[in-house]
Specification:
alpha/beta, twelve-stranded mixed beta sheet, single chain, 11% helix, three-stranded parallel beta sheet
Length: 377
């Protein structure tokens, strides 16, 4: 780890995480009474799993509200239950948001969950499904548009049947650390989900994936999260030229090499993270290609020029910037950092020397300091 020789600087403002929990929704007052088959399926699903108060209280957003499924009672309208959304005409359940509901157990292939045939959105994030494999029965949700299994403790292979969900717009399987995505399954997902706009596969094992296959993802894709996914080889340069891609996270793939288009290209990318990848970062090419960036994360990278930081003045839309652990030295080029716009700046674990500019010392509007200054012997 590289430390400052005379000055340790760390400017840090806590900000909302890349992953935002979905808000809970209920049906409108004009909705019909919940379909009895769906009421039965929901209650059976609840009773097939155990409840963990610890999980619920640790991850739920609103501590003043009871854990979701605790309010599900037989003889009441399931369309008015927390986390349940019904169709306004048929009364069928079309949305189920069980984020941090304290669910603990295994979703078996005969689970009553799979009887909810009209589901369009399913969120099971922040629960614990005992590192069991994702059931092939998930492929039965033919109307599914949004599938979110973030941090829900699934393991094994991603079920190939997920590819049957051809109407999907968003898929989040991320942070299931023992989950593996095979090349054949990804190929089928890519071929069938032609309307996909957001794909999150961070922390999955994707080591068997041929990176060139990513070029076949839907042209509608706006967000791709492959953080710590064990990617290997050269990332396709063409991915940076996709017409609608605005968010790209590749950090933590230590065997991934990356290069930017050499010619001028106005990319729509707004957020880019390349931290801890096996790449030589040419900031000149980066600045030319990605003028629309508002968030750039380059922790623990290799830079091709010693004066690269001066080029950052060309990224006029930046609000978040991370450059920690890069062995930079000398004076910090404050004039290139657009301090009045930045809300997050991390320059820690470098070898900069000098003093904080007066603007940074007196302002409390955009920065929080931890600590402001710390002298290192």
């Amino acid at each position: 780890m590289v430390w400052f020789s005379r000055l340790y600087l760390f400017l840090f403002l806590f900000y909302s995480p890349f992953y935002l929990l979905s808000s809970l929704s209920t049906s409108s007052p004009t909705s019909p009474f919940c379909h009895p088959d769906d009421t039965s399926a929901l209650l059976q699903f609840k009773n097939s799993l155990s409840f963990s108060k610890f999980l619920c209280e640790r991850y739920r957003r609103d501590a003043s509200r009871p854990c979701l499924t605790m309010c599900w009672k037989n003889g009441t309208d399931c369309c008015k239950w927390d986390g349940v959304t019904c169709d306004d005409i048929t009364g069928h359940v079309i949305g189920l948001n069980l984020t941090a509901a304290g669910l603990n157990g295994i979703i078996q292939s005969n689970s009553s969950l799979f009887r909810l045939a009209h589901l369009k959105s399913l969120v099971l994030s922040y629960n614990h499904f005992n590192r069991f494999q994702i059931s092939s029965e998930f492929g039965r949700f033919q109307n599914m548009m949004h599938l979110d299994l973030f941090y829900s403790n699934f393991s094994g292979q991603v079920a190939p049947e997920i590819s049957y969900l051809s109407k999907l717009h968003t898929i989040d399987l991320s942070s299931n650390y023992d989950l593996r995505l095979e090349a054949s399954t990804l190929k089928r997902i890519i071929e069938n989900t032609t309307n996909l706009t957001e794909l999150s596969l961070s922390a999955l094992d994707m080591s068997s994936i041929a990176l060139i296959s990513l070029m076949n993802l839907s042209s509608s894709l706006t967000s791709l999260d492959l953080y710590y996914s064990r990617l290997q080889g050269k990332f396709p340069e063409g991915m940076f030229r996709r017409p609608n891609l605005q968010v790209l996270y590749l950090d933590g793939n230590t065997n991934l090499s990356i290069s930017f288009p050499k010619y001028n290209w106005s990319s729509p990318l707004k957020q880019l993270s390349l931290s801890s990848t096996n790449s030589s970062i040419d900031l000149l090419s980066l600045v030319k290609c990605f003028q629309n960036l508002n968030a750039l994360f380059l922790r623990n990278c290799h830079f091709t020029r010693s004066n690269d930081l001066l080029l950052l003045s060309n990224l006029t839309k930046l609000t978040q910037l991370e450059l920690s652990s890069n062995n930079f030295s000398g004076q910090i080029p404050w004039n290139s950092l657009n301090l009045e716009r930045l809300t997050f700046l991390d320059l820690s674990n470098n070898m900069f020397v000098g003093h904080l500019p007066e603007f940074v010392q007196i302002t409390q509007q955009n920065f929080a300091f931890r600590p402001t200054l710390q002298m290192i012997n």
